[in-house]
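seq/struct pair 1
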Amino acid sequence: MKIQGASIRRFIDKPDKAVRAVLLYGPNESFSHEAAQKLAAWAVGKSDDPYAVTKLGDDDIKKDTARLVDALSAQSLLGGPTVVWARINGKGADAAIVDALEGFERDEPLGYLIVEAGDLGSTAELVKKFTAAKNAAVVAFYEETDAERAQHARGLAKDMAISFDRDAEDLFLSALPVDRGLATKEIEKLALYAHGLGRPISIADLEALMTDEGESALDAASLAAAQGKAAQAIEALARIDALSGISALRALLRRLHQLREARLLIDGGMSPSDAIGKLRPPVFWKERDAVAAQARLWNGKKLNAAFDILWSAELRSKTAGAPQELIAADAYRGVAKLVGN
């Protein structure tokens, strides 16, 4: 069974009890991981068994192909449900997962299986097997649009009883991290600040609270690259711990999309500062002057060349064993070099 569209949230919030195995995949790995966490918590229920969830990686399954089915067949120490959460990358564990899936199809007394499979294609064999199985579900998570991110953030802020003054909400949305988990933490922090405040959040509140948001290393790196400052961009990237090259590439891609929209407005007769003011989501207040200056440096030809560099780099980064950080750094240098051409 394939879960799509609005049904995804309903399924994750209230899973179908007939489903015993779930495949989560797609380019939005943050969403896949968040969904896996929720499904594991639901499957365990009120069990107090600390070993109810068995986590297996690619190497665990490759070394012992029977380990996955053995873990699903094991009995919980306290008699509760057994959950196996497999995080895989590539096809090395496919055969073992398909064996387990066939066990579910034979109605064998197995536990609950969650497979987090990374950025699989929709035509991958594992996707086909889970889609066709009667006791399994497939959920694909793709990158959110700006509108979808804003909708989620507004809904979460409303649930946490956060209200905003005029224009303050737009400023807050523009400053939120793209990553869903990080954005949620920022909204939770704002909820703590707003609790007992007795009035809506103002722009002044946000400026005080988010002084460092626009100065994050990733923002600094993408900003420097768009200004043609390659050395500064690479230095900023080097300060980021445990950041994937894909994330770095997409951060710069988002900034260039922002500049492309600004250029279209400028080419239509609008001043750079007015064009920046029209962008949605709004440009973070501390970056507006810098982005307006960048918009003067870029034209359609340069932007197209930059997009080619980033898309090519992302494709190379998705190759097994690719040095993502080095590929991202090279792409940042290539984009920065275009500014002076």
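seq/struct pair 2
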Amino acid sequence: MSEVLRQLAKVLEQRKLESADKSYVASLYAKGLDSILKKIGEEAAETIIAAKDADPKQIIHEIADLWFHCMVLLADQGLGPDDVLQELQRRFGLSGLEEKAQRNK
């Protein structure tokens, strides 16, 4: 599964070199961080609505949009999916309470 994320990350990096009038992602990069964050907020809200409507297909669709825009944010910040996967791996086997306590130190 993570191979799909790595492939997407490569494409998102390539979009940094493209013209904003020819690529949606390039246009987000050109508009800046606030525009990327706004899209993440919109997609998060749409995910919540889909979940409240209990529509499995729509939930999947909206989460895919949310993940995509989070990946755009990662790329914008010089990060990638492997950074997130490493953090999730680090947390694996910890209880949520233990992990939260470690963050507060």
